[in-house]
């Protein structure tokens, strides 16, 4: 297939592109590079031998998006692009609603205009809010008790996709609800290297390990978990990328929703210990106050994806740490 990947220069998008190219697909990227680096495209070329075509465009520019879809002859779209920092979304909600919703509406209008009827959407476990359980299945209610505008935009986009599908019997939608991506490509050439201050645990751990930050803040150690710190489902980014390939191979008319996670929970302190074990170095950290809205424990029940897509994780937290360290060794030269 020929696939347009929005946000394809970002962390998850770039790893997915590596898997798409390896599977023989032709890929073009639409990205404004606001949270990505051109070194990611160089890394894709080093790993695959292919430098994907980049459309340096923001989805807010409808005319340019229409032009890309008009000339592209695409078979499918994988939609990663969007603002994604939870805390920032609380501080700047209008910016998040404008970019994430209008950008997606523009993309869907262009797809509809030029009859591109397949889309895989990068969603999030945040759409479940606080469902009162630690094990998240796809049949749990979504859209209730979401604590931040970022998560609300993901839920709203899911609802928009359902409505577009209902209006077009040829439209094929797969919604992938991510849990917590970590790790890097095993080559060490590609990994998580965000612009500005990172928001996710692993890139902060990386910056502490590099000496850029003096210590890691652990938000609360008094949760009802074995060590008192939050438990999350951390999934290796390569496994996550392969989940998109599996979804693409099993597209059908209508809307299908899948959790992409490992099915196992790991606490923040266990993540720190795993990094220390892999690196042989102590990672300084301090316990600080809880963050509002953090759940004590959550992990995916990924059996639906295994049954219907033939996909499940094969890589571990230890693999993620090993690959992250290899990426860290190369990061200054990338």
Descriptive labels:
single chain, 334 residues, alpha/beta, Rossmann fold, seven-stranded parallel beta sheet, 11 helices, 15 strands, 41% helix
Question: If you had to describe this structure to a student in words, what would you say it looks like?
Answer:
The protein has 334 residues and is α/β, with parallel strands linked by helices. It has a domain at 2-184 and 234-261: NAD(P)-binding Rossmann-like Domain (Rossmann fold, 3-Layer(aba) Sandwich). The protein has 11 helices and 15 strands. It has a 7-stranded parallel β-sheet, sandwiched between helices. A two-stranded parallel ribbon has the order 6-15. β2 (26-31), α2 and β3 form a beta-alpha-beta unit. α1 packs parallel to α2 (38-48), α5 (93-113) packs parallel to α6 and α9 (268-279) crosses α11. The chain is globular, with a radius of gyration of 19 Å. The two termini are 30 Å apart.
DSSP helical segment count: 11
**How much β-strand is present in the residues?**
15-25%
| Principal-axis shape | globular
Task: Tell me, rounded to a whole number, the average pLDDT.
Answer: 95
CATH superfamily of the domain at 2-184 and 234-261: NAD(P)-binding Rossmann-like Domain
Structural class: alpha/beta
CATH topology title of the domain at 2-184 and 234-261: Rossmann fold
Major sheet: order of its strands? 3-2-1-4-5-7-12
Ends distance? 30 Å
- Look at the structure and give the CATH class of the domain at 2-184 and 234-261: Alpha Beta
Oligomer: single chain
CATH architecture designation of the domain at 2-184 and 234-261: 3-Layer(aba) Sandwich
Q: Unreliable runs, pLDDT <50, ≥5 residues?
A: none
Major sheet attributes: 7 strands, parallel
Counting DSSP E segments of at least 2 residues, the number of strands comes to 15
Helix percent band: 40-55%
Radius of gyration: 19 Å
The helix/strand order is: EHEHEHEHHEEHEEHEEEHEEHEEHH
């Amino acid at each position: 297939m020929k696939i347009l990947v929005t946000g394809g220069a970002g962390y998850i998008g770039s790893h997915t592109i590596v898997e798409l190219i390896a599977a023989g697909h032709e890929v073009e990227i639409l990205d404004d590079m606001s949270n990505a680096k051109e070194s990611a495209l160089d890394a894709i070329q080093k790993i695959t031998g292919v430098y994907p075509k980049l459309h340096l465009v923001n989805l807010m520019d409808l005319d340019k998006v229409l032009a890309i879809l008009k000339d592209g002859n695409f078979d499918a779209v994988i939609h990663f692009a969007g603002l994604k920092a939870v805390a920032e979304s609380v501080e700047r909600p209008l910016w998040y609603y404008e970019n994430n919703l209008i950008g997606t509406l523009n993309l869907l209008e262009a797809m509809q205009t030029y009859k591109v009827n397949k889309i895989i959407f990068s969603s999030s476990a945040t759409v479940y809010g606080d469902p009162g359980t630690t094990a998240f299945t796809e049949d749990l209610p979504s859209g209730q008790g979401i604590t931040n505008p970022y998560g609300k935009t993901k839920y709203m986009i899911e609802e928009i996709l359902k409505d577009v599908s209902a209006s077009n019997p040829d439209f094929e939608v797969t919604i992938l609800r991510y849990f917590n991506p970590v790790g890097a490509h095993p080559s060490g050439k590609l990994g998580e290297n965000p612009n500005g201050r990172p928001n996710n645990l692993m890139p902060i751990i990386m910056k502490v390990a590099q000496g850029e930050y003096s210590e890691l803040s652990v938000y609360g150690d008094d949760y009802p978990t074995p060590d008192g710190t939050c438990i999350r489902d951390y999934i290796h980014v390569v496994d996550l990328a392969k989940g998109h390939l599996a979804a693409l191979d099993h597209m059908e008319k209508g809307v299908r929703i899948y959790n992409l996670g490992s099915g196992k929970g790991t606490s923040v302190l266990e993540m720190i210990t795993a990094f220390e074990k892999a690196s042989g170095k102590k990672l300084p950290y301090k316990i600080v106050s809880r963050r509002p809205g953090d759940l004590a424990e959550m992990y995916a029940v990924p059996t639906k994806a295994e049954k219907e897509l033939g996909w499940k994780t094969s890589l571990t937290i230890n693999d993620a740490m090993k690959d992250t360290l290899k990426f860290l060794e190369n990061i200054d030269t990338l």
